[in-house]
Amino acid sequence: MNIHEKYISRCISLGKNGQPAAYPNPSVGCVLVYGDMIIGEGYTSAYGGAHAEVNAIASVKNKALLKDSTLYSTLEPCSHFGKTPPCADLIVKNNIPNVVIGILDPHKKVAGRGLKRLRDAGCEVIEGVLAKECREHHNRFLTFHEKKRPYILLKWAQSLDGFIAPAKEKRNKEPEPFWITSQPSRQRVHQWRSEEQAILVGTTTVLEDNPKLDVRHWSGKNPIRVVLDKDLKIKGNYHVLDGTIPTIIFTTQTDDSKYIEGIEYSIIDFSANIPQQINSQLHKRNVLSILVEGGKRTIETFVEANLWDEARIFTGNTVFKKGITAPKLSGKLVTQEYSYTDTLNTFIND
User: Catalytic positions, please?
Assistant: First the structure.
């Protein structure tokens, strides 16, 4: 690892601290180096707050050192006025002579303009350092701007013999939830929920499990609840209708007399490409990521449309013998880890 890679690696670590509060902005990490000494660090504040470069420059105690320093960043500094002024202008204003970045910003208002602003001002700019790692760090932001859709994660738990739920007759006899995984694994799912902007389930999952879809076993912000309910079958005392968390219901029903106050309804065509329509609607709402939790048919709809980026699959030591079989997908296994009695396999759609 050379010196530039060393500091960009540090930037990536810093950038993780801003997730997910920075969304829909990218969670950038930034380091300022004088000689071989870090004199300032920062990461993107919660949405609407200061960008990483601003926070890093503000953290430098002796500003006189900036004129002989190098600024490192995971992403190209912005060059436009949004909720905050352009970071490229701030770099120029502080006479920082050297800038090293991981990747270009694909946002249409930036897209190379930040680097042009720096170079036109006489800055020496190096780009593409640890580009692969920076793309991985910014995968949600990049997917949103390059593919015009949220980053899509699939998640399910399956029994040792490949079922996501027991047979209906068993569920009818024993209506209590059938937990496939251990408590630590279930807590980890709540952590994942806190890291994404939205969570999606289908009608059957709500009717049979009445999930809260919140982060009660973790600390963080609840994701937006997204529910597929073609005919508005979900009625009555269901958690997704309680109005405590922003909720979007995708349906075909246009009669707003059936709508519940405090719930957002979006009309889509259930005979067409459902995932594509959902992605389009969420993109318009600036949603960078969505965790698809179930049920089987909902997950399979995304798999069949080849609209998924990552899948996290828990396998517990429970045996059902018969029931609802787990979804199938083909992807690249990138990690396998163990959590008490459970195995977690993570796939990417390659």
Answer: 53
